[in-house]
Amino acid sequence: MRRDNQSSVSEFLLLGLPVWTKKQGMYYTLFLGMYLTTVLGNLLIILLIRLDSHLHTPMYFFLSHLAFTDVSFSSVTAPKMLMNMQTESQSISYAGCISQVCFFLLFGGLDSFLLTSMAYDRYVAICHPLHYTTTMSQKLCFLLVTVSWVLSCTSALLHTLLLARLSFCGDNTLPHFFCDLSTLLKLSSSDTTVNELVILTVGVVVITLPLMCILVSYGQIGATTRRVPSTKGICKALSTCGSHLSVVSLYYGAIIGLYFFPSSSNSNDKDVIVSVLYTLVTPMLNPFIYSLRNRDMKGALRNILSKRKFSPC
């Protein structure tokens, strides 16, 4: 049947978070605080890396891009969710919903590729320290970031174009706080076989392969540190990986819990809660993980604060 002969929805209704209406004001304040912390914390990381020349290294180059991605990733969903909670409106336009899917997939995929690039950086630094400077050149760092953007954009556009060709008739209610791709496919009145096949195929490239690369990198790092004769040397090597491993665990742990162990069709609350974990909580925790566990970041912050304190008026 042709699309123009079908009635299609002009907007979707987002049911939002499974919270009590009486306590919605409290949850609004909580999530607003989380979002502001995410934005300010990650922008602080970007600022510190920009201003401190000691942080102009491949590791912090990737970290600055990860911080920008985290701000963008949360900004795709959080402002709309907060606005709906404040105004008690549930609607989002069709164009707004499709755009939200596109940017959500873009920055979600970019997060995955950047974490993989950071794992490779740690692998070279620990397993091949004598060749680190030549291997992790500025050219390679720019290439890795560029490839990450290209692959993420391609993946997001492919999903978005396939989604835009579907028809949505009848029920337009999404039991979610944002336009989730898998939830939208369940509402479509069209055949979604191609969409689901692309999700499986692209998911291997965007999620599975990067995760495998990270695991292999840290497997090699683990094997290398076991051969280090000094306990002090092992602790020093592992300390550079602690922050990254924490972020990887949070990010992929939430994704695996959501997409590899989905809830039953009758209960969507767990999926919504886990989605909050990796769209709001994980980006918010990243600045704390990298600042509290990283002496370089804390040193850069002290240097900048001391310069401002003793600078002439």
Give an account of the 3D structure:
It is a single chain. This protein is mainly alpha-helical and 313 residues long. Helices cover 75% and strands 3% of the residues. The chain is built from 10 helices and 3 strands, in the order E-H-H-E-H-H-H-E-H-H-H-H-H. The protein has helices at 24-51, 58-87, 94-127, 132-135, 138-164, 181-187, 193-226, 231-260, 269-292, 295-310, and strands at residues 11-14, 91-93, 173-174. Strands 2-1-3 form a 3-stranded mixed sheet. Helix 3 packs antiparallel against helix 5 (138-164). The longest helix has 34 residues, at 94-127. The protein is globular and about 65 Å long. The relative contact order is 0.14. The model is unreliable at 1-7 (pLDDT under 50).
Structural class: mainly alpha
Distance between the termini: 72 Å
- Poorly predicted ranges: 1-7
- Mean pLDDT across all amino acids: 84
Q: In one word, what is the shape?
A: globular
Percent range for β-strand residues: under 5%
Radius of gyration, rounded? 22 Å
Number of helices: 10
